[in-house]
Amino acid sequence: MKLNIYKDSDAAIQSIATYLVDLAKKSIAEKGRFDISLSGGSSPKKLYELLAKNFASDIDWTKVFFFFGDERYVAHDHPDSNYLMATTAMAPLNLGEAQIFKVDTSLDPESAALDYEKCIKKHFGENVAFDLILLGLGDDAHTASLFPGTDILFNDENLVKDVYLKDKEVYRISMTAPLINQAKNVAFLTFGEGKANALQAILEAEKDITKYPAQLIKPLNGEVQWFIDEAAASKLSN
Ligand SMILES: O=C(O)[C@H](O)[C@@H](O)[C@H](O)[C@H](O)COP(=O)(O)O
């Protein structure tokens, strides 16, 4: 696990963009494509915009294939859609429809999860291993839609599962920890004082995945990098 601490989120995002593009170059050179899973929420939006603005000519973006670590169970044109957020931010890259694998939220939640799992398995074949999975962190220590107290935390059968969030009365479709842990590289983007307690608990508290789900993320053969700002790191002891 590598902790990268920056003075602010802009510096962190610049560094993640460079790290991502370097991984993409290597992967495209080695296997002819780069398979990435995007995080949702607000933190990564600036990263996607930066990639489109400053890195458009650094790699052959037609060889990049985008999936989503989780998706809100809404239409793709709904303001909460991670698909809408990411594709809007990266619009200048003119990505082809076939490069972006969105969750089919027109299906019922359980079928949407099964369908997305099928889509991932079809893309990867036997060995489902993303080159990079980007993850955010909630202030309750959730990541993707692995929320405290939800059944998905104990799911080791599926690669993708529907999650019902009782408090918000909404569904999410999320990659499971076993799928994320098959990735070659995982990068967390975590910024702001509001995440400091969650980050400290995840990295320094006792292991309790029901309270701190992001503790589940330990890639079997990969590396986890944290890209954080000083505000998010402010409660770490060392
Ligand atoms: O769909 C989502 O919302 C994300 O996948 C979720 O896991 C997010 O990464 C965290 O909630 C942090 O969100 P912010 O970046 O908005 O703080």
TrEMBL record:
Enzyme nomenclature, EC number: 3.1.1.31
Organism domain of life: Bacteria
The protein's annotated pathway: Carbohydrate degradation; pentose phosphate pathway; D-ribulose 5-phosphate from D-glucose 6-phosphate (oxidative stage): step 2/3
Occurrences of domain Glucosamine/galactosamine-6-phosphate isomerase (ranges): 8-226
Entry-linked InterPro entries: 6-phosphogluconolactonase_DevB, 6PGL, Glc/Gal-6P_isomerase, NagB/RpiA_transferase-like
SUPFAM superfamilies: NagB/RpiA/CoA transferase-like (SSF100950)
Catalytic activity: 6-phospho-D-glucono-1,5-lactone + H2O = 6-phospho-D-gluconate + H(+)
Enzyme class at the top of the EC tree: hydrolase
Keywords: Hydrolase
MF annotations from Gene Ontology: 6-phosphogluconolactonase activity
Function: Hydrolysis of 6-phosphogluconolactone to 6-phosphogluconate.
PANTHER family to which the protein is assigned, alphabetical: 6-PHOSPHOGLUCONOLACTONASE
Stated family: Belongs to the glucosamine/galactosamine-6-phosphate isomerase family. 6-phosphogluconolactonase subfamily.
Protein name, per record: 6-phosphogluconolactonase
UniProt organism field: Pseudopedobacter beijingensis
Taxonomic lineage from the root: Bacteria, Pseudomonadati, Bacteroidota, Sphingobacteriia, Sphingobacteriales
